[in-house]
Structures are given as C-alpha cells and as structure tokens.
Write a structure and sequence with these properties.
single chain, alpha+beta, eight-stranded mixed β-sheet, 12 strands, 21% helix
Length: 175
C-alpha cells in the first residue's frame, strides 16, 4: 500500500499502515477482530487527519460473515468514508491476492463519479487494475444532491454547486 508501517502516535498507539490519504488498521476477518478494526481505524484517522481504512486479512473459511459486518457499518455510515480492503492470506505466496476494495462516495480529482459510469471503469479510475473490465466490481448506491463537479464516463464536468446529477455513493472494486 506504499505507506509507513507501524506509524507511532503521540499516545504510543501504532497505526498499522499510514498512507498519504488513509490510516489503516489491519486485522483478521474473524471473531471480534472486525469490531476492533472499525474502532481503531476511526481513532487513527482522528489522530492523523487521514481517512479511516481497514485491511481485513482472511485466514479462515468462515470470513464472509465478518466482512459483511464491516460492509454493513460502511453502508450505514457513508460519511465516515471508511475504505475497506480484503486480502486472502490463507495460501502464503509472494503476492497476496486482493479480493475487494470498498469506496464510499468515490471521487476522481475531487469530481464525483456519475452513475452512468460502468463500475469497472470507475474502479479503473480509482487505481484498481490496468483495464476497465473488472468482474466482481459493482455500484451499491447513488446520491443526487449538491453536486459541484462530476465525472461522466468520458469527461470531467464542473457543474456549479447544487446540481442534482446522480453520482455513485458506494463502489466495491475487485482489486
């Protein structure tokens, strides 16, 4: 993730990975760990001024219900802008496969992404993959209030504030 590992805060807490945009808490996708990850990510974000991020690591086959719990919190509280990354580490290899990354109110250079944009294209714009077709990527909501700038599938448009263009509020990318 090209961040600083084990970044130490003033209270000696350690952010697992601090990037230029996010403070990530890494934890296992099982048991009570997912609840701890939510709280720690929010605390680290508040202390660093970065956005909260959670990296859930899969080590057991029963991970799905735990990932769903975090996704549900993200869905219910989109203003928290938590980024979720899920990685499968059951088979250790030199490169760890990323299963999905969740984006809330995704933006490209400060421009919301119009709902007419294909999920694969939106994921590509957000740095997921090298091509625009990403199976498993999907949009989960749309907003329609006070848009100032919006990215249509082919161009950036400065709309002036208050425009009711529909934009993506939730996006899960297979990356």
């Amino acid at each position: 993730m090209q961040g600083e590992a084990e970044y130490v805060l003033e209270d000696l807490s350690r952010v697992d990975c601090l990037t230029s945009t996010h403070a990530f808490e890494a934890d296992w996708a099982d048991g009570l760990k997912v609840y701890e990850a939510i709280g720690q990510a929010l605390y680290y974000a508040s202390e660093t001024g970065r956005l909260p991020g959670i990296l859930l690591l899969i080590r057991k086959d029963t991970y799905e219900k735990h990932v769903r719990k975090v996704e549900r919190v993200i869905e219910m509280y989109p203003d928290l802008k938590i980024q979720l990354i899920v990685r499968d580490v059951r088979e250790e290899t030199s490169s760890t496969e990323v299963l999905s990354t969740r984006f809330n109110n995704p933006q490209v250079d400060g421009f919301y992404i119009h709902t007419s944009t294909n999920a694969g294209v939106a994921c590509y714009l957000l740095g997921c993959g090298e091509y625009v077709y990403l199976p498993g990527s999907y949009i989960t909501g749309e907003g329609q209030t006070e848009v100032c700038k919006i990215w249509y599938h082919n161009e950036l448009r400065d709309m002036g504030c208050g425009n009711p263009e529909p934009y993506i509020t939730g996006l899960t990318c297979a990356c």
